[in-house]
Structures are given as structure tokens and as C-alpha cells.
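User: I'm curious whether this sequence folds into something compact or stays loose and floppy. Could you predict its structure so I can see for myself?
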Amino acid sequence: MIRQVADWIRTSKKVIVFTGAGVSTESGIPDFRSPGGVWQKYNPEDFYYQKFISSEASREKYWQMSREFYEPLKNAEPNEAHRAIAQ
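Assistant: Here's the prediction. I'll summarize afterward.
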């Protein structure tokens, strides 16, 4: 089975790889669920659609979180896991 999957990957024009958030933490991008993660600082329920559209405070929290994410995302570089996937 592993050889068959490897052949599919080798002969494919495009491949999608699903990973966990931890793949990017080494690049400085915070994850959401780990200790010290984003959901310890923010309540995910504040970003549910109905609350987001009905609450100015919820939208303000969203934009605050977005501002905090901007620098780590802007400055992120691929790490070994990203390079391995690309290879």
C-alpha cells in the first residue's frame, strides 16, 4: 500500500498535504490549542459568525487578534517540515 501511495504522489500533478498547526509553530506562527496558544488568550466563541456580526466588541477582539498575528505571519520562513513536504 505504501508503494502504491508513493507512486500516486510521484505521478500526480498536484498533492495536498494536511498537517496540524504544530507544523508552523517552529516558524514562529502561534497555534490555537496548545498551552499558551491563542485560545487561552481569546475565547473562540467570540468569533462565531452570529456573535461576530451582532457584537462590536467581538469584532474589535477579532481585529486585535489579527493585528497580533500579522507580524509573525509576515516574518515567517519555511521550516524543515515545510521543506520536507515540498520535497
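Summary: Residues 54 and 79 are 39 Å apart (CA to CA). The two ends are 21 Å apart (CA to CA).
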